Amino acid sequence: QSKRLHSMAMGGVIGGIALLLAWLSARNLARAVTQPLQHLSNTVTALTRGNLHARCGNCGKYEITTLAADIDRMAQRLQDSHALNEERVRGATAEALEQLAQAKQATQARTRFLATASHDLRQPVHAMGLFVDTLLPGAAPPQIPSLLRLREATEAMSTMLDTLLYISRLDANVMSPEPKPVLVADLLEQLDAMHAAAAHEAGITLHWLANTKIIMTDHSLALRVLDNLVRNAVLHSAGTRVAIVARRCGNDCVRIEVRDNGVGIASILQNRIFEEFYQVGNQQRDRRNGLGLGLSICARIAQLLGTKITLRSQLHRGSAFALTFPAASPAALSTSTASAATYSAITAHCLLIDNDDAIVEGTTALLTQWGCQVTAARTLEQTLTLLHEQGPYDIVLCDLQLHEHDDGFEIIHHAQQLYPNALTVLISGTTTSDMLQRAQQASVTLLTKPVAPAKLRALLAARKAQ
């Protein structure tokens, strides 16, 4: 019996030792497997969170070691790929920033060039226009045709300079539309009057249809856009008919179309015609056909007006340019009408400030012919003396850039303080964005050279009528 108990005890001890060894073996095996697997899982989690420097290292043996090595290789490839992509992104970003800086510099250089060229050209053109209008009333009959041709050439140069001015104003963001109710029929009548003669000479029938529709827009800016579209149709479409049609499109908008039955525009070119300096059919850059800026300017003005120029065209079947404007009710249309232009004498005491002798002479002769008493000055010092000693003045016309550092804005400021009821006008050939913004902020009446004598007279007459 004792041997049996001893045998059972020994069996129990051996069994316990075996179980202990099995437990220890299972524990060690679990640690050898689960810990490396946990390390692998942590490494993969770190990689997915963007820590591409995480590695498995030496974890486990056999298949686990192989798996860890594979994960490390994958992580290294990800890190290398990420570094390469970052380098490419940095390179592309640097290149894009450089191109952006170059484009900005090119735009600024173009704006400065246009403003400088505009100023240098406006001075002689302005003086030429003044002298032509001074000579016309007393010209002999044989001289009148030549003077009229000279006036026509001056007006053409003025139109080109105005185009440059519009670009400067658009670049400077100083054009602010003033929407008012506009009777479309009046707008189209103006277009008819502006282009009827040219259309007749070209053998084109000019037709318009508007009924009594009223739109809400800035009259002068809308007229400029439509004027360009009609001029292009008359001069370049090679058709026989141009129609300007206004139709309602829904209850709250009016669509104005300029249609022609000319050669049309190929679909591949229809987007390019709104690019600056691009002209269909003028590859030789014949300046008699314009600068190729009209449609690009019109597209930008249309955007200011809250609309867009659309085009439908087919080769040999004509083109239709269109703009859509908000409709206005008849009640919104002002019943006041503009007073008719008067050509009676303008009896006023005028102070003229300009450092260009030709402009002083031409402007003085023209203003004197209109009935004004003119006193001229060429510097800030002379002007201040005249303002204090020979006033009062009804009109002050001042050039922007005088001798050295004399500033036209300063003269206008002094004149407004001394004679608040006088008409103060700043005349400038400079069209830089800084100057345009400064004039807008100072609420200064600004005329840009060359000033059409008719425009100057209308301004003076309007002031006299007040």
Report the total helices.
11
Strand ordering within the main sheet: 2-4-5-7-6
Span of the ends, CA to CA: 142 Å
Q: What is the alpha-carbon Rg in Å?
A: 40 Å
Total count of strands? 12
Q: Main beta sheet: strand number and arrangement? A: 5 strands, mixed
Any chance you could write out the topology, listing elements then pairs?
Blueprint: H1 2-48, H2 62-135, H3 144-172, E1 180-183, H4 184-201, E2 205-209, E3 214-217, H5 219-236, E4 241-248, E5 253-260, H6 294-304, E6 310-314, E7 318-326, E8 349-353, H7 357-370, E9 373-377, H8 380-389, E10 395-399, H9 408-418, E11 423-428, H10 433-442, E12 445-448, H11 453-465
Parallel strand pairs: 2-4, 8-9, 8-10, 10-11, 11-12
Antiparallel strand pairs: 1-3, 4-5, 5-7, 6-7
Helix pairs in contact: 1-2, 2-3, 2-7, 3-6, 3-10, 4-5, 5-6, 8-9
Structure description:
The protein has 466 residues and is an alpha/beta fold. The chain has helices at 2-48, 62-135, 144-172, 184-201, 219-236, 294-304, 357-370, 380-389, 408-418, 433-442, 453-465; strands at residues 180-183, 205-209, 214-217, 241-248, 253-260, 310-314, 318-326, 349-353, 373-377, 395-399, 423-428, 445-448. The strands form 3 sheets. Strands 2-4-5-7-6 form a 5-stranded mixed β-sheet, with helices on one face. Strands 9-8-10-11-12 form a 5-stranded parallel β-sheet, sandwiched between helices. It has a two-stranded antiparallel sheet with strand order 1-3. The longest helix is centred in the first third of the chain and has 74 residues, at 62-135. The radius of gyration is 40 Å and the shape is elongated. 27% of the residues are buried. Residues 282-289 and 335-343 have low confidence and may be disordered.
